[in-house]
Amino acid sequence: MIRFENVSVTYADAEKPALHGVDFVVDEGEMVLVMGRTGSGKSTLLRTINGLVPHFSGGTLRGRVTVDGRSTETHRPRDLADVVGFVGQDPLAGFITDNVEDELAYGMESLGLSQTTMRRRVEETLDLLGLADLRGRPLTHLSGGQQQRVAIGAVLTAHPRVLVLDEPTSALDPLSAEDVLATLQRLVHDLGMTVIVAEHRLERVVPHVDRIIHVPDQGGPVEIGEPAEIMARTPIAPPVVDLGRAAGWSPLPLTVRNARRMSVSLRERLATVTPPAHQPPQLGDMVGTAHDLVAGFPRQPVLNGIDLMIRAGEVVALMGRNGAGKSTLMRTLVGLHKPTHGKVQAVQVGLVPQVPADLLYAATVAKECATSDRDAGAPAGTTRALVDELAPEIPDDRHPRDLSEGQKLCLTLAIVLAARPKLLLLDEPTRGLDYIAKHRLVEILADLSTRGHGIMLATHDVELVAELATRVVLLGDGEIVADGPVPEVVVSSPAFAPQVAKVMAPQEWLTVADIRAALDGQ
User: Which PROSITE patterns does the record cross-reference, listed alphabetically (predicted)?
Assistant: First the structure.
């Protein structure tokens, strides 16, 4: 179905190719994961499948890419639209219409399908992706996760034979992500669709795929193989695989179910060891409060009577399903959204939005960093040093809009962190970040909290919460339904528990690092 023959892609003025010597074949009815470090070339690889690279991105493509027998050299993206459906990392940027139902129908209108067929497929897709209650909702009023599901649905209604998705679960809560992945599996198994997915949250996707394409950084050769084969030799791995390495299991488990079966002796070995519970942080002054807060859209409140306090020195994870009100709460705290009722107080707040590019305006990365240093009153080079910690090797002369989504996030994080705000708000901060970049982010945020900054993360990344947060606030339909220490809230939750907690339950272990330290101490 998809064939790459010695494919290389080089962008203008780039010192090295974004992809080099790529050879592989993906058969009909396969679900394949594309994995690799932030900026390794995953998005470039995906965009060569429907001809966006090089027809719209520029650069030079050498070699040959064919999809269902059609060469992307002679077929532009519009000529492949009936075969390849593509969903990018930023759904809002790809929307054409104003509301959910119209967006689902637009692609079919372009293909000239009948009204009867369009109506049937829209209804099927609304049910398939759990969007029926949102059918008339304006797209700008949806949460990031809801927008992502609409973007996927808009592609599915055209019934393509190949579906290409760039970070499809990055803005989805755990249950919504499982629903989307289960839907993709049904499309593969029941309809014979070929699905190519690029994703950093490997713990979600690896159990569902048939094969993995690993795109290494530094221009190394691209590998393709069975999940177990790739996981055995790559340093990038989900927590359940890392746990298997720490415990010395062979073969390495790829699912929580398999790890649970293999963990009997490990659980017995650690039964008398007390898990390192999150120590209460040294709390300082209040940096943010909300009292009886009501906020949302006209005649449609999103938050209902929120009471919340954030102190310096704590890391608060704001969790809940898509549409629960997490982003609205953050935007209200920073002053971008006016409360309908109640009171909000916050001092020196910095917000990293869900779409990082909203804060990027300069023509080069170097100019963004220099402007950030000047605006923050920080020594020259401060922002650039933070960028290098999060995502090394982003060139100074690169236009920020030409960076990968993960690199844009790293640059935006650095710009906001340079000002060292007393209260730092981050909306889905690990979206687009690989495990190594995420670990660097955890170190930076942990350091900020120990220096007396208050931090709130709106996130669906349960592994990040386990590693970094000291407290979890769980939202449900605009109300706080749980507020407490991380182990107390997440370990007993089927939806929000990290992989290690699921494997080791009822023991309250949260991370592989904790288990590795306990084993080393025995």
Answer: ABC_TRANSPORTER_1, ABC_TRANSPORTER_2
Measure the CA dihedral 7/10/16/22, to 10°: -10
Q: Give the pLDDT confidence score for residue 218 in this predicted structure.
A: 64
Which residue stretches of 157-287 are H helix?
174-191, 202-205, 227-231, 239-247, 256-262, 264-269
End-to-end CA, the chain: 52
Residue 244 structure tokens? 């298997």
Q: What is the rounded average pLDDT of the residues 269-282? A: 80
Residue type present at position 150: V
Q: 7-11, 286-290, 414-418, 433-437: which range is least confident on average?
A: 433-437
Q: pTM for this one?
A: 0.85
Domains observed in the chain: 2-236 (3.40.50.300), 286-515 (3.40.50.300)
Three-state secondary-structure class, residue 123: helix
Reported as a pLDDT band with limits 50, 70 and 90, residue 350 is: very high
User: What is the spatial distance between Cα 401 and Cα 44, in angstroms, rounded to a whole number?
Assistant: 14
Provide the residue type at 344 as one letter. Answer: V
DSSP β-bridge partners for residue 346: 288
> For tokens 């599901």, what's the residue?
149
Structure tokens at 234: 């790559």
Q: Using CA atoms, how far apart are residues 99 and 461, in angstroms rounded to an integer?
A: 28
Separation between Cα atoms, residue 320 and residue 342, nearest integer Å = 22
CA distance 288 to 180: 35
Separation of alpha carbons 150 and 91, rounded Å: 8
Of 125, 127, 186, nearest in space to 152 by CA: 125
Beta-carbon contacts of residue 77 (< 8 Å; ≥ 6 apart): 50, 51, 52, 55, 56, 86
